[in-house]
Structures
1.
Amino acid sequence: MVECFASLQGEGFHCGQAAWFVRLAGCRNACAFCDTPQSWDMNAFARRSEEDLVREAVESGCTNCVVTGGEPMLHNLDGLCRRLHEAGLRCWLETSGSEPLSGEWDWICLSPKKGVEVREEYYRKASEIKIVIGSDEDFSFAEEQAVRAGQDCLLYLQPEWSVSNAITQKITQYILKQPKWRLSLQMHKFAGIA
């Protein structure tokens, strides 16, 4: 487990809502634009008990818990989700969809990465798909993902942070022509919060 903290969800549908974040260690995807590469090495961090994680989440006063990473699905999260639900928290997942799904989720944000195979079950269960756009070529990847999404799945395009000034205008123009998409900005970075 890398870290736990209370903050506002900075991306996607729940942007601006208070949440307790549980960032789990381990990731095989090694995305060039990852903003938490320190989370990739699972062995670099101490393990924490589900009881401790749930206790801290409850003590935070938040009613939403975002489980993220790294790639959180490298861990079996059945027990953690069950305990969080029993404590009255909603469970939100952020995943690339590269690993088997575990846990019962109130919301799944699927963020596919180019070159990383997504397991089919995620397309059926995703509440939202978020595609990071860093170049013009990423729009075709986004469309490939959109056709696999469920009918009620929300679709987001998010500027890659290091090129956000240059790419946000292109995303805006794209969404005006393809209004099935929504813009997701990393509000927490603009606001200077964790």
Note: The first strand starts at residue 3 and ends at 8.
2.
Amino acid sequence: MTEAEQFLVAQDVYLKAGIHIGTKFRTKYMEQFIYKTRPDGLSVLNLQKIDERIRHAANLFSKYKPDEIIIVGKRENSWKAIRALNKHTGIKIFAGRYMPGILTNPVLDNYIEGKIVLVTDPWPDRNVIDDAVKVGLPVVALCDTNNNANNVDLVIPCNNKGKKSLGLLFWILAREYLKNRGVIKSDDEFKAPLEEFTEE
């Protein structure tokens, strides 16, 4: 099996984006995804596991229509990436501060409904996770080495703070979602440039 068949993008593309660079802190739960700890104390995530989980998430999302999926990112570093994903897939996004009740309280002006939620970081996005649990929605979360996975149904291990890392991850997710939904036939048909998703 060649490297191209093995990974969703070439290994050096992942490495350049720093998708595998974790933090100096590691939780018990995230240890299973850690490949090694560097001399400077930063944990390095296993690239194979990152790739497998992105693929798994894309397959899972493809069972849902775009308006049934909600992607939430409180951290500003994720906004450009999730807005680009929204533009190309129609998946609902929530960029910025999420107030409790948006998923649970129909009387709110900004009430939204969905069938599955993805959060860019379980800690700042914990209000969303709490709401999703209340209404019984499955939760997918991007988790760094310092995250806990309470109430998360599927963890995608990755550097969930870096703009390049988040840009690449959501670019891949957008492409794979469209392919799995039959909107495009091949990688080549996905015309969105990576730069549209990432901050320089």
Note: Residues 91 and 108 are 21 Å apart (CA to CA).
